[in-house]
Amino acid sequence: MIKLHHQTLQDFYRWHQREESEHDINPVAVYRREEFSCSRSLESGRYKFYKVSLCVQGSGRLGYADCGVDITRSALAFSDPHIPYSWEPYSAEQTGYFCLFTEDFLSRRKRHGVLPSSPFFQLDGDPVRFPDEEQTRLISYFFERMLLEQNSNYPGKYAVIHNYLDLIIHEALKMQPSHLLFRNTAAFRLCSQFMILLDQHFSEQGDWRKPADFAGQLYVHVNHLNRSVREVTGKTTTTLIAERAVLEAKHLLLQPSHTIAEIAYRLGFNHPGNFNIFFKKHTGLTPTEFRRQTVCSS
Fold first, then answer.
1. Are residue 104 and residue 210 in the same domain, yes or no?
2. Under 8 Å between Cβ of 237 and 209
3. CB atoms within 10 A of CB 284
4. Longest dimension (CA), the chain
5. What's the predicted TM-score (pTM) here?
6. 4 is a domain residue
7. Number of domains present in the structure of the chain
8. pLDDT digit string (tens) for 81-102?
9. Domain range spanning residue 254?
10. What is the pLDDT of residues 95-146, one digit of tens each?
11. Strand order across the beta sheet in which 42-45 lies
12. Is residue 49 domain-shared with residue 153, that is, in the same domain?
């Protein structure tokens, strides 16, 4: 076993000894579990992408933070970049499906469907469900349809895949929770409150806020907030604010009605040039390059 911390999609493919294919570099990709080395152990680590997995056959222990659940029957599991997870297989046979997607995928679909606000991707959510036979067949069908769309030439295939992910989440909401309980520490509760406040702020106002501003709203000292966030997520409060600002910037850049200057001022930058520097630092592209690249790929 090896430790993988803040693993990227490229790291994930290398770990599974797979070469990048055309759809590997896109913001969403769907696979069958038997195509990957799901019978190998994976130590706890954080991953820079989201994952929705359906285990149809096979058993093992799925760990989240310092909790875990035994998978001995069909299971539907959700993971995100904020909670470290691990996998310890009990059997060599592992079949099913999984879908990987990035923040870019969420930013493009941010105002659509239940995926961006899914409770399964919340810090205090229960990320595992156990579908019955009928539900397993239905969700397997959704994954098969996503595989077909992924391999098609249809220009709107990623929107269709997003819709199937929404259907999977709706089915999961009908199921009973697995009662996988996360540690109920003060740090975990405070971090969860911060993440909710961060998302609400950018969704409603969008301008920049410093860690001290959020600490004031949560009635805690900024140093206490920073320690709690770092303990739970492995990232600084400043990093999470910047990542959320980048996500909001990408969403706004996808709307041609907003000029880059307007987006810069909305996010709290005094000058568009400062916004350009910030955006390129975090994405490798200028806002103009991102907008042009996105239009060309849509």
1. no
2. no
3. 9
4. 57
5. 0.67
6. no
7. 2
8. 877 788 888 888 899 999 998 8
9. 186-297
10. 999 999 887 777 665 555 566 667 777 666 678 899 999 999 999 999 999 9
11. 42-45, 85-89, 60-64, 67-71
12. yes
